[in-house]
Amino acid sequence: MMPRQVYRCPKHGEFERDVLIKQAVPPSWPCAECNYPSPWVPSVPNFIGGPTTGAKKE
After folding, report:
1. How many other C-beta atoms lie within 10 A of the C-beta of residue 39?
2. pTM for the whole thing?
3. For the chain, which terminus, N or C, has the lower number of CB atoms within 10 Å?
4. What is the average per-residue pLDDT within 37-46?
């Protein structure tokens, strides 16, 4: 299972990344548009196949 994690770029907004359940959630992830290290937005885990958070899927 791979929960979807949400990150927030200050310029481009929220986006999602899939992280293996056995991995620690990275505290930031580079934005695909500007490569800015975007902080993780803590939320209830969302697994692949479930409804999305509404953030852009990368």
Report:
1. 15
2. 0.73
3. N
4. 84
